[in-house]
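Letters spell out the chain; the tokens describe the backbone. To illustrate:

===
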Amino acid sequence: MPLPDSVLVHAPATIANLGCGFDVLGLALAAPYDTLRLRRTGGPGLKITHLDHYGLPTDPLHNVAGAALLALLEKVPEAVGFEVEITKGIMPGSGVGSSAASAAGAVVGANALLGHRFNKLELVDFAMAGEAVASGVRHADNIAPAIFGGFTLVRALAPVLDVVALPAPPLWVAVVHPQIEVKTKEARALLPTAVPLGLAVRQWANVGGLVAGFLTADYALIGRALEDYIVEPARAPLIPGLAEARRRALAAGALGGGISGSGPSIFMLNRDGETAHAVAAALGSVFAELGIAHDLHVGRIAPEGARVVAE
């Protein structure tokens, strides 16, 4: 069967860290998502075009999708190139995996055009080159769910990349994105370089509890485990209204939540859609009162990651 010359890809937003799981836990959202059109060319080279208004770089070395594709092409022996048109449905800097979506979507689309010669773990490895462009660090907590879908655990980056795809109960996610800027590099610079052992014990107990809660659909356990003792306290000053947003969300029925990635978005997990919409309204009310423009997203955990939706 002949390979397609062009594919259209949807690549989902993601929530990283999930409170206690800094750099290791993540999940995919049903919406929003980036849209990428990839075309295979007859010779080497990459051409990146953005069909949105964010003014992102198009030089492949400085574009997250371009960097991911360059990493992939290093493993392709034949002379091949791609033209990529990107329409960002995920606002850059929103804290819901905007860079990961573009990087993941690019390698998933390229893989389809190459006859699916790479597995998902290899695609995660390629896409991390895009995250390095965005944040200066190769990390996979957004990339893994953007490619695998659902709920993922990054057990190790080295010496061998190890990603565990885990089942997720039918949870709903409410997200508020206040229109304030939090740069990933700056948010990482705030993190402590040493953690007291007692605090670390409490943190990894929550990681285990959250994974167990997802595996057993124990919503009460999920709620108890959604607490971060290390990273969120360091980053909380970057997001005005965070404490009040959490208080109102819990009062509206949320299981729990916290900062999405490095922020400024805040996520809350919920048992059902009705609760998720009520929680989103509660989150939005905080930023409306603060006079901060904001976007709200409500949806299920997406079972699939970046995928080809049309040729």
